[in-house]
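Board notes, transcribed. Complex of a protein with copper (II) ion.
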Amino acid sequence: MAWGAAAILVFMVALTVYAACRSPGKRRGTPTMLLLIGGGLVFPGVVLIALLGYGWNAGDEQAPRRGESNVFRVEVRAHQWWWEIIYPEADNGPLYAVNQIHVPAGRPVYVTVTSSDVIHSFWVPRLGGKIDAIPGRSNTIRLMASEPGTYDGVCAEFCGIGHAHMPLNVRAHDEAGLAQALAGLSTVRAVP
Ligand SMILES: [Cu+2]
């Protein structure tokens, strides 16, 4: 979508420069119908339909899927200004952590997000889109880290004076590494 928007911007700037620079003596009549129908209907119609299809697919990728197996579930509760992480299905759990999420690489991860105070937004750009953390409501996003590594995240919705200092990271592990990481977590909830 960014490339599409960039291409259109370059095209429009080129047209503007051409219109501004061509010599007045060489002006011919502007083909009005071509501009109106081509530039006003056909061009945006084709571009928007293509982007809509692409966006629809990309959005679908991030929605939980009915009946999907092998899912790893995490709950995230946003606070001013930190993230409470809960592993509801951990073997000896639930387990609790702060600001860091351990996930298996190559498996779908369903992150269910809520908030304890104001609206925040959970965003790990390399893994997917944003999802709002809304008090009294749970939103679930499906993420997948294709390989082990650390993926940084942020709060993407202004949530008060500490908004910029609300770090988050996702660490994706192989199964053995995940078990090891989870073994180090607390069974006691962090108190705000
Ligand atoms: Cu926030």
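Residues 32-61 form the longest helix (30 residues). The chain has a mean pLDDT of 90.
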